[in-house]
Amino acid sequence: MASRRSTRNDNDQRVTFSRPLFIALLVVSGALIAFDRPASRSDAFGAFRAGFTDLAAPLLELGAQPIRSVKGIGPYFRRQGALAEENAQLRQQLIEARYWEDLAYRQRDRIEIYEDALDVETPMIQDRIGAWTVADPQGPFVQARLIGRGLEAGIRDGYPVINLYGLVGRVYETGRRSARVLLLTDLNSRIPVMADRSNARAILIGDNSDYPRLEYVGRVPDLQEGDRIVSSGDGGILPRGLPVGEAIRTRSGEWRVRLYSDQAPVDFVWVWPYQRIVPPDQEPDEADLELPPAELPLIVDTPDGETDAEPEAAPDAGADDGTAPDDASGDASPEEQP
Amino acid sequence: MRKPTDRQSPWLAALGCVLSVLLALVMQAAPTRLVDGVNIMPTWPLVAIFLWSGVRPQFMPPIAVFAIGLTQDLLTGAPMGVWALSYLIAIAAFRFRGEDGMPRDLPPVLLRFAGTLLLAHGIAFTAGSFALEQMADLQPLIIEIVATLLMFPLVAYLVLRRRRSGRSGFIGG
User: Which one of B31, B81, B141 has the shortest CB-CB distance to A136?
Assistant: First the structure.
């Protein structure tokens, strides 16, 4: 029978599944699994991963283009009948939004005046970095997105990532031209949040479901269904006030969050440059900080009650006896300002 | 008229193998969730590895299987080695042996692929849970298995058809 005869060339007969190589590769795989755990990943492994995604990002971007071009086709045909009605609603909302836009501009101006008066600079006014999703791996081990901007665009590990509706996650692996975003739904995601209404604190913990759960809410949490959940800023990991979602209660009494960011596919996102607030014990060494100019006179109380102006700066003098003069703190570095 | 030797160009077959594996890896990582209703992604790299190891085993030595698995780990953000280990063991256990290689009928191919798929995902679940230091999510794995089982017959049918119609093998052969 012609179709049953061997189809291999003579050369194919020499092909074997080499046992020593196979065993060696098994050992290598096992070693990689042991050393590349997300909880204890070394910098070298992290750099290798980031370098690889940098190389793969253009190819993935190419693969994402056709998907991006057809993404609106399904909803368009399915909801054709409702589009006219939706259009009318949107026009009405646009009129209302113009009032809120005007109000927002006025509020922004007022805030700028107050901030100037108080000499306060909030991190929220920094520019956001826009990026497209280039890969969306759907695996059991990680819920992440790969975005097509990296270190060169100013993205760093830990920066929060938002879409039009709310917080998506945060950057956890940064390459030169790509970065990986850990979603709020991932098993390893832990975000300090609070209810906007009551300021009740909780930790938002991802469990690979669409609705991450709220933990550490206390015995009698001041939460209600529909409460707006925002980032609390606790621990300095994320800025305070980023919209996350709304609280929902399951039948078992567990609190979970319906994410705002789920209202649309995570395609275009903004990365929010945010300097993590460092605890005092982790601040840079005193030598690294900018010292006050030497020519500024320090006001030092002398033991006999007189006040002398010393011409030389003595930054350590106050620190040693714990009586740092208030006037000297006026030259503190920006990190020390509120 | 083309000579039979032209049809047996190993370079064309090798190119087909590389391109199909690349396509499978890109599809695996592509942001398909952007398209409404497409939330299920079959394990395309395993499909490619399995079919090529049956049709052209010389293109799928252990090092190639390992490299594909490792690339999938890196693209999907999974701990390195998880899919590499899974594919290696599963393909080693269920690859076609013997002179005829992969049979030309669909049912035995499908059956063997189901075994490969289940073993690969079982190992991936165990290895992934070990790496994450907590139980990995079983639901996406099950969805992947079902989606792959649903999609595999179509791809396998096309490959087997091409193989039957070809003089002595698959693309270029």
Answer: B31
Task: Give the Cα separation of A330 and A89 in Å (integer).
Answer: 54
pLDDT along chain A (338 residues), means of 10: 42 62 92 85 86 87 78 66 80 86 88 85 70 79 88 91 91 90 90 90 90 86 89 87 92 91 84 79 61 46 44 39 38 36
Distance CA B94, CA A17 (A): 12
Interface pTM, i.e. ipTM: 0.83
Residue A72's CB is within 10 A of a number of other CB atoms, namely 12
User: Nearest chain B Cα to A182, which residue?
Assistant: B77
Residues of B in contact with A39 (CB under 8 A): 132-133
Give which of A55, A141, A163, A189 to mutate to test B binding, by max B Cβ within 10 Å.
Answer: A141
Q: Using a CB–CB cutoff of 8 Å, tell me whether B26 touches chain A.
A: yes
DSSP-derived 3-state class of residue A47: helix
What's this model's pTM, rounded to 2 decimal places?
0.70
Encoded tokens for B95: 């690859």
